[in-house]
Design brief:
Layout (H helix, E strand, L loop, with lengths): L1 H23 L11 E7 L2 H17 L3 E9 L1 H10 L4 E5 H8 L8 H16 L1 E3 L9 E6 H7 L4 H7 L4 E4 L1 H5 L4 H8 L5 E4 L2 H9 L5 E5 L4 H4 L2 E3 L12 E6 H6 L2 H7 L7 H12 L5 H11 L4
Helix pairs in contact: 2-13, 2-15, 4-5, 14-15
């Protein structure tokens, strides 16, 4: 009896241990399970659309299932989710990867930046950069057209002279990034009377309605044209290129190599104007990102 209890107890312990091992077997890079990949996205419209563009081609061109996690948060939140294996892939921007993730000084040559971040991510993070979508969503600064005309502001250098009398609204992340306001202060000696952190969806309206003078802007945002904003010239070429591309964990690609061809089917298909138009359909026409993404994929014959 004594021995049977002993062996029974050992058996129970073994079952528990094996079950725990089974629960943790997914580990990093298997965020969605054996036949599922998880796509994350940052907290703005363009990223939301990119999530569904990538999901659409994966589901159309492979047997994989896709779990989407849009609007996770800012750059550091989403990139850490990828590093941990909570997600398998997301769309990143070359300039952001260079200056924020790798903490390298800005570079201006698009190919050199892509090559740099591709190598560093591969070597240090075991993450692969696939081919860029085609558009460059670089940061810029924008003002209302009539106000810019009144003050004679066409470039960042022009703006620097007027900045002590003006208010800047931007995403909170932009105020804290070296490739954002901090870098502008160093490069242009640009110092505004006041800065306010604001949701990306509100800052364009704040400038349009005269509640702020200047906003940071994304070059592919549809509201620039719709709100009659003037994009100012970065005459010292401070902002690096921000070409968007899928970034995928190496262990995910090893497990699902078919992802590469599926995602690369989007390579070069989205120029600045196209991305601006897709963003405008969501931001200005109040359409759902998933519907806009699927409509475009069908029109391109990709799904």
């Amino acid at each position: 009896m004594k021995n049977s209890r002993k062996y029974g107890l050992v058996a129970v312990v073994l079952v528990l241990v094996l079950s725990l091992v089974g629960c943790s077997a997914g580990g990093k890079g298997t965020a969605g399970g054996d036949n599922t990949v998880t796509i994350g996205g940052k907290n703005f419209t363009e990223q939301d659309i990119l999530v569904y563009l990538m999901a659409g081609v994966i589901e159309a061109k492979t047997d994989l299932k896709v779990e989407t996690k849009p609007w996770l948060g800012g750059t550091l939140v989403v990139s850490k989710a990828l590093d941990r294996g909570d997600i398998d892939l997301y769309a990143e921007y070359t300039g952001t990867a260079l200056t924020v993730q790798l903490e390298q000084p800005p570079m201006n040559d698009p190919d050199a930046v892509y090559d740099k971040v591709s190598k560093e991510y591969k070597d240090k993070k075991k993450i692969t950069w696939l081919k860029p979508f085609g558009f460059n969503n670089t940061y810029t600064l924008a003002m209302g057209e009539s106000e810019a005309q009144r003050l004679g502001i066409e470039s960042f250098s022009d703006l620097t002279k007027q900045a002590p009398n003006l208010t800047l609204v931007s995403e909170q992340e932009f105020l804290e990034r070296d490739d954002g306001y901090k870098g502008l202060q160093k490069t242009y000696n640009m110092n505004f009377k006041e800065t306010k952190g604001m949701d990306a969806g509100l800052m364009y309206s704040a400038v349009k309605d005269g509640k702020a003078d200047v906003c940071d802007a994304f070059a592919t945002d549809g509201r620039i044209v719709a709100f009659n904003l003037r994009v100012l010239k970065d005459d010292k070429q401070f902002f690096p290129p921000y070409y968007a591309a899928p970034v995928v964990r190496d262990d995910t690609l090893a497990k699902h190599p078919e992802l590469k061809d599926a995602l690369n089917s989007l390579a070069g298909k989205l120029d600045d104007k196209t991305m601006q138009q897709l963003n405008a359909k969501v931001d200005l026409e109040n359409r759902k990102s998933q519907d806009v993404a699927n409509e475009w994929l069908k029109a391109q014959g990709l799904i």
